[in-house]
Amino acid sequence: MARVVVDVMPKPEILDPQGQAVANALPRLGFTGIADVRQGKHFELEVDDSVDDETLAKIAEGFLSNPVVEDFVVRRLPA
Amino acid sequence: MRIGVITFPGTLDDADAARAVRYAGAEAVALWHGDADLRGVDAVVVPGGFSYGDYLRAGAIARFAPVMGEVVRAVRGGLPVLGICNGFQILCEAGLLPGALLRNAGLHFVCRDQRLRVERTSTAWTGGFEAGAEIVVPVKNMDGRYTAEQSTVDELEGEGRVVFRYLGANPNGSLGDIAGISSADGRVVGLMPHPEHAIDELTGPSADGLRLFTSVLGSVLA
Question: Which CATH number fits domain B2-221: 3.40.50.880, 3.40.640.10, 3.40.1390.20, 1.10.620.20?
Protein backbone atom coordinates (compact mmCIF):
# COMPACT_ATOMS: atom_id res chain seq x y z
CA MET A 1 0.00 0.00 0.00
CA ALA A 2 1.12 3.55 -0.64
CA ARG A 3 -0.28 6.90 0.32
CA VAL A 4 -1.05 9.18 -2.61
CA VAL A 5 -1.91 12.83 -2.18
CA VAL A 6 -3.97 14.76 -4.71
CA ASP A 7 -4.11 18.53 -4.31
CA VAL A 8 -6.78 20.36 -6.29
CA MET A 9 -6.65 24.15 -6.62
CA PRO A 10 -8.77 26.70 -8.48
CA LYS A 11 -6.89 27.86 -11.57
CA PRO A 12 -5.05 31.15 -11.00
CA GLU A 13 -7.43 33.11 -13.25
CA ILE A 14 -10.55 31.77 -11.48
CA LEU A 15 -12.09 34.04 -8.83
CA ASP A 16 -11.84 32.31 -5.43
CA PRO A 17 -14.27 34.13 -3.08
CA GLN A 18 -13.71 31.59 -0.28
CA GLY A 19 -9.96 32.23 -0.30
CA GLN A 20 -10.63 35.97 -0.39
CA ALA A 21 -12.94 35.70 2.62
CA VAL A 22 -10.18 33.95 4.57
CA ALA A 23 -7.61 36.54 3.43
CA ASN A 24 -9.92 39.39 4.47
CA ALA A 25 -10.51 37.84 7.89
CA LEU A 26 -6.80 37.56 8.79
CA PRO A 27 -6.12 41.28 9.43
CA ARG A 28 -9.26 41.44 11.59
CA LEU A 29 -7.82 38.60 13.67
CA GLY A 30 -4.56 40.47 14.11
CA PHE A 31 -2.47 38.58 11.52
CA THR A 32 -0.70 40.93 9.13
CA GLY A 33 1.50 40.39 6.11
CA ILE A 34 -0.64 37.74 4.39
CA ALA A 35 -1.06 39.07 0.86
CA ASP A 36 -3.38 36.42 -0.59
CA VAL A 37 -5.12 33.11 0.19
CA ARG A 38 -6.35 30.50 -2.28
CA GLN A 39 -8.56 27.67 -1.06
CA GLY A 40 -8.48 24.20 -2.60
CA LYS A 41 -8.99 20.54 -1.75
CA HIS A 42 -6.56 17.94 -0.43
CA PHE A 43 -7.22 14.22 -0.92
CA GLU A 44 -5.31 11.34 0.67
CA LEU A 45 -5.70 7.99 -1.06
CA GLU A 46 -4.51 4.64 0.32
CA VAL A 47 -3.50 2.92 -2.88
CA ASP A 48 -2.61 -0.65 -3.70
CA ASP A 49 0.84 -1.08 -5.29
CA SER A 50 -0.79 -2.33 -8.49
CA VAL A 51 -2.33 1.10 -9.22
CA ASP A 52 -0.14 2.91 -11.74
CA ASP A 53 0.46 6.63 -12.23
CA GLU A 54 -1.70 6.74 -15.32
CA THR A 55 -4.70 5.47 -13.35
CA LEU A 56 -4.06 8.01 -10.60
CA ALA A 57 -3.94 10.80 -13.17
CA LYS A 58 -7.26 9.61 -14.60
CA ILE A 59 -8.84 9.67 -11.12
CA ALA A 60 -7.49 13.15 -10.44
CA GLU A 61 -8.42 14.64 -13.81
CA GLY A 62 -11.72 12.88 -14.42
CA PHE A 63 -13.24 12.92 -10.95
CA LEU A 64 -11.38 14.67 -8.13
CA SER A 65 -10.92 17.86 -10.15
CA ASN A 66 -12.89 19.70 -12.81
CA PRO A 67 -10.26 20.62 -15.45
CA VAL A 68 -12.43 23.53 -16.63
CA VAL A 69 -11.74 25.47 -13.43
CA GLU A 70 -9.19 23.52 -11.38
CA ASP A 71 -5.57 22.31 -11.56
CA PHE A 72 -4.34 19.21 -9.74
CA VAL A 73 -1.07 17.70 -8.53
CA VAL A 74 -0.64 13.98 -7.74
CA ARG A 75 2.14 12.95 -5.35
CA ARG A 76 3.14 9.53 -4.04
CA LEU A 77 4.32 9.94 -0.46
CA PRO A 78 7.44 8.00 0.55
CA ALA A 79 6.59 4.96 2.65
CA MET B 1 -45.73 13.09 -25.02
CA ARG B 2 -43.79 11.64 -22.06
CA ILE B 3 -41.16 13.67 -20.22
CA GLY B 4 -38.82 11.97 -17.77
CA VAL B 5 -37.83 13.62 -14.48
CA ILE B 6 -34.72 12.18 -12.83
CA THR B 7 -34.43 11.68 -9.07
CA PHE B 8 -30.98 11.33 -7.49
CA PRO B 9 -30.32 10.96 -3.76
CA GLY B 10 -30.62 14.59 -2.60
CA THR B 11 -32.77 15.85 -5.49
CA LEU B 12 -35.36 18.33 -4.15
CA ASP B 13 -37.30 19.73 -7.08
CA ASP B 14 -38.39 16.57 -8.90
CA ALA B 15 -41.97 16.90 -7.61
CA ASP B 16 -42.29 20.48 -8.86
CA ALA B 17 -40.64 19.56 -12.18
CA ALA B 18 -43.13 16.69 -12.66
CA ARG B 19 -45.98 19.08 -11.76
CA ALA B 20 -44.73 21.55 -14.38
CA VAL B 21 -44.65 18.76 -16.97
CA ARG B 22 -48.26 17.86 -16.15
CA TYR B 23 -49.35 21.53 -16.21
CA ALA B 24 -47.87 21.73 -19.71
CA GLY B 25 -50.08 18.84 -20.77
CA ALA B 26 -47.51 16.04 -20.93
CA GLU B 27 -47.11 12.85 -18.93
CA ALA B 28 -44.38 13.00 -16.24
CA VAL B 29 -42.33 9.81 -16.01
CA ALA B 30 -40.22 9.25 -12.89
CA LEU B 31 -36.65 8.18 -13.72
CA TRP B 32 -34.39 6.73 -11.04
CA HIS B 33 -30.67 7.55 -10.85
CA GLY B 34 -29.71 3.90 -10.41
CA ASP B 35 -31.56 2.63 -13.48
CA ALA B 36 -29.80 2.73 -16.84
CA ASP B 37 -33.20 3.18 -18.46
CA LEU B 38 -35.00 6.24 -19.86
CA ARG B 39 -38.27 4.29 -20.22
CA GLY B 40 -38.78 5.55 -23.76
CA VAL B 41 -39.39 9.18 -22.83
CA ASP B 42 -39.42 11.97 -25.43
CA ALA B 43 -37.48 14.46 -23.30
CA VAL B 44 -35.74 14.60 -19.91
CA VAL B 45 -35.66 17.14 -17.09
CA VAL B 46 -32.71 16.99 -14.67
CA PRO B 47 -34.14 18.86 -11.68
CA GLY B 48 -32.58 20.89 -8.89
CA GLY B 49 -31.51 20.02 -5.39
CA PHE B 50 -28.29 18.76 -3.85
CA SER B 51 -27.59 15.41 -5.51
CA TYR B 52 -25.20 13.35 -3.37
CA GLY B 53 -25.07 16.26 -0.94
CA ASP B 54 -23.01 18.32 -3.42
CA TYR B 55 -20.02 16.34 -2.09
CA LEU B 56 -16.78 16.84 -4.04
CA ARG B 57 -18.43 19.40 -6.38
CA ALA B 58 -22.05 20.13 -7.25
CA GLY B 59 -23.05 17.51 -9.83
CA ALA B 60 -19.67 15.73 -9.82
CA ILE B 61 -20.98 12.42 -8.48
CA ALA B 62 -24.41 12.48 -10.12
CA ARG B 63 -22.85 12.58 -13.58
CA PHE B 64 -21.62 9.02 -13.04
CA ALA B 65 -25.07 7.65 -12.14
CA PRO B 66 -26.29 4.87 -14.46
CA VAL B 67 -29.19 6.99 -15.72
CA MET B 68 -26.79 9.75 -16.84
CA GLY B 69 -24.95 7.33 -19.13
CA GLU B 70 -28.27 6.80 -20.91
CA VAL B 71 -28.95 10.55 -21.03
CA VAL B 72 -25.54 11.21 -22.63
CA ARG B 73 -26.20 8.46 -25.17
CA ALA B 74 -29.71 9.74 -25.99
CA VAL B 75 -28.52 13.34 -26.39
CA ARG B 76 -26.38 12.15 -29.32
CA GLY B 77 -29.67 11.08 -30.92
CA GLY B 78 -31.25 14.50 -30.32
CA LEU B 79 -33.15 13.91 -27.05
CA PRO B 80 -34.17 17.29 -25.56
CA VAL B 81 -32.76 17.70 -22.04
CA LEU B 82 -33.36 20.54 -19.57
CA GLY B 83 -31.07 20.93 -16.56
CA ILE B 84 -32.30 23.23 -13.80
CA CYS B 85 -29.94 24.47 -11.06
CA ASN B 86 -28.27 21.29 -9.77
CA GLY B 87 -29.40 19.73 -13.06
CA PHE B 88 -27.45 22.43 -14.96
CA GLN B 89 -24.41 21.67 -12.78
CA ILE B 90 -24.77 17.95 -13.58
CA LEU B 91 -25.03 18.60 -17.35
CA CYS B 92 -21.82 20.69 -17.19
CA GLU B 93 -20.00 18.01 -15.19
CA ALA B 94 -21.20 15.42 -17.72
CA GLY B 95 -19.76 17.47 -20.57
CA LEU B 96 -23.16 17.98 -22.24
CA LEU B 97 -22.78 21.74 -21.73
CA PRO B 98 -19.49 23.66 -21.53
CA GLY B 99 -18.18 25.47 -18.45
CA ALA B 100 -18.76 25.04 -14.72
CA LEU B 101 -20.84 26.52 -11.89
CA LEU B 102 -18.84 27.82 -8.94
CA ARG B 103 -19.59 29.22 -5.47
CA ASN B 104 -21.59 32.48 -5.66
CA ALA B 105 -19.22 35.45 -5.71
CA GLY B 106 -20.90 36.92 -2.60
CA LEU B 107 -20.64 33.58 -0.74
CA HIS B 108 -24.34 33.79 0.15
CA PHE B 109 -27.07 31.35 -0.72
CA VAL B 110 -29.28 33.56 -2.91
CA CYS B 111 -33.03 32.92 -2.93
CA ARG B 112 -35.24 35.48 -4.65
CA ASP B 113 -37.48 36.19 -7.61
CA GLN B 114 -35.17 36.98 -10.53
CA ARG B 115 -35.79 38.86 -13.75
CA LEU B 116 -34.31 37.19 -16.83
CA ARG B 117 -34.17 37.96 -20.53
CA VAL B 118 -34.77 35.12 -22.98
CA GLU B 119 -31.86 35.58 -25.40
CA ARG B 120 -32.33 32.54 -27.63
CA THR B 121 -35.65 31.12 -28.77
CA SER B 122 -34.28 28.56 -31.27
CA THR B 123 -33.95 25.83 -28.63
CA ALA B 124 -36.15 22.87 -27.80
CA TRP B 125 -37.10 24.54 -24.50
CA THR B 126 -37.59 28.21 -25.46
CA GLY B 127 -39.32 28.07 -28.84
CA GLY B 128 -42.54 29.37 -27.32
CA PHE B 129 -41.02 32.65 -26.10
CA GLU B 130 -40.83 35.94 -27.96
CA ALA B 131 -37.20 36.85 -28.63
CA GLY B 132 -35.99 39.20 -25.89
CA ALA B 133 -38.90 38.36 -23.59
CA GLU B 134 -38.41 39.39 -19.96
CA ILE B 135 -39.56 36.82 -17.42
CA VAL B 136 -39.52 36.39 -13.63
CA VAL B 137 -38.66 33.06 -12.02
CA PRO B 138 -37.12 32.16 -8.65
CA VAL B 139 -33.39 31.66 -8.29
CA LYS B 140 -32.12 29.70 -5.26
CA ASN B 141 -28.60 28.38 -5.11
CA MET B 142 -25.17 28.50 -3.51
CA ASP B 143 -23.09 27.55 -6.56
CA GLY B 144 -24.53 29.49 -9.48
CA ARG B 145 -21.58 31.47 -10.82
CA TYR B 146 -21.24 30.39 -14.45
CA THR B 147 -17.57 30.20 -15.39
CA ALA B 148 -15.73 29.03 -18.48
CA GLU B 149 -12.59 29.84 -20.40
CA GLN B 150 -12.88 33.18 -22.18
CA SER B 151 -12.67 31.38 -25.54
CA THR B 152 -15.68 29.24 -24.53
CA VAL B 153 -17.68 32.29 -23.44
CA ASP B 154 -16.79 34.04 -26.72
CA GLU B 155 -17.96 30.98 -28.62
CA LEU B 156 -21.25 30.82 -26.70
CA GLU B 157 -21.89 34.53 -27.26
CA GLY B 158 -20.83 34.37 -30.91
CA GLU B 159 -23.07 31.41 -31.68
CA GLY B 160 -26.01 32.87 -29.75
CA ARG B 161 -26.00 30.02 -27.25
CA VAL B 162 -26.62 32.19 -24.19
CA VAL B 163 -30.30 31.36 -23.65
CA PHE B 164 -31.07 33.30 -20.45
CA ARG B 165 -29.36 36.36 -19.00
CA TYR B 166 -29.85 37.96 -15.57
CA LEU B 167 -31.50 41.38 -15.58
CA GLY B 168 -30.86 43.79 -12.71
CA ALA B 169 -28.32 42.70 -10.11
CA ASN B 170 -26.40 39.55 -11.03
CA PRO B 171 -27.13 37.11 -8.16
CA ASN B 172 -23.85 35.19 -8.30
CA GLY B 173 -21.18 36.96 -10.39
CA SER B 174 -21.60 34.76 -13.47
CA LEU B 175 -19.58 35.75 -16.53
CA GLY B 176 -21.56 38.00 -18.88
CA ASP B 177 -24.60 37.80 -16.56
CA ILE B 178 -25.18 34.32 -18.00
CA ALA B 179 -28.10 32.49 -16.37
CA GLY B 180 -28.51 29.68 -18.90
CA ILE B 181 -26.90 28.25 -22.04
CA SER B 182 -27.60 25.63 -24.68
CA SER B 183 -25.81 23.03 -26.74
CA ALA B 184 -24.97 24.03 -30.33
CA ASP B 185 -28.09 22.28 -31.67
CA GLY B 186 -30.34 23.84 -28.99
CA ARG B 187 -31.61 20.46 -27.74
CA VAL B 188 -29.82 20.63 -24.38
CA VAL B 189 -30.49 23.67 -22.18
CA GLY B 190 -29.25 24.37 -18.67
CA LEU B 191 -30.10 27.29 -16.38
CA MET B 192 -29.63 28.15 -12.73
CA PRO B 193 -33.06 29.78 -12.04
CA HIS B 194 -36.11 27.58 -11.48
CA PRO B 195 -38.83 27.77 -14.14
CA GLU B 196 -40.64 24.81 -12.52
CA HIS B 197 -41.40 27.03 -9.50
CA ALA B 198 -43.07 29.66 -11.72
CA ILE B 199 -45.88 27.85 -13.51
CA ASP B 200 -48.90 29.23 -11.65
CA GLU B 201 -49.39 32.67 -10.14
CA LEU B 202 -50.98 31.06 -7.08
CA THR B 203 -47.74 29.32 -6.11
CA GLY B 204 -45.00 31.33 -7.84
CA PRO B 205 -44.04 34.86 -8.82
CA SER B 206 -45.41 34.33 -12.35
CA ALA B 207 -46.43 31.60 -14.76
CA ASP B 208 -43.51 32.47 -17.07
CA GLY B 209 -41.63 29.25 -16.38
CA LEU B 210 -44.39 27.05 -17.76
CA ARG B 211 -43.43 28.12 -21.26
CA LEU B 212 -40.21 26.08 -21.18
CA PHE B 213 -42.30 22.97 -20.68
CA THR B 214 -44.92 23.84 -23.30
CA SER B 215 -42.12 24.77 -25.72
CA VAL B 216 -40.62 21.29 -25.64
CA LEU B 217 -43.99 19.80 -26.50
CA GLY B 218 -44.04 21.88 -29.65
CA SER B 219 -40.46 21.00 -30.53
CA VAL B 220 -40.95 17.25 -30.15
CA LEU B 221 -44.27 17.16 -31.98
CA ALA B 222 -42.99 19.40 -34.79
Answer: 3.40.50.880
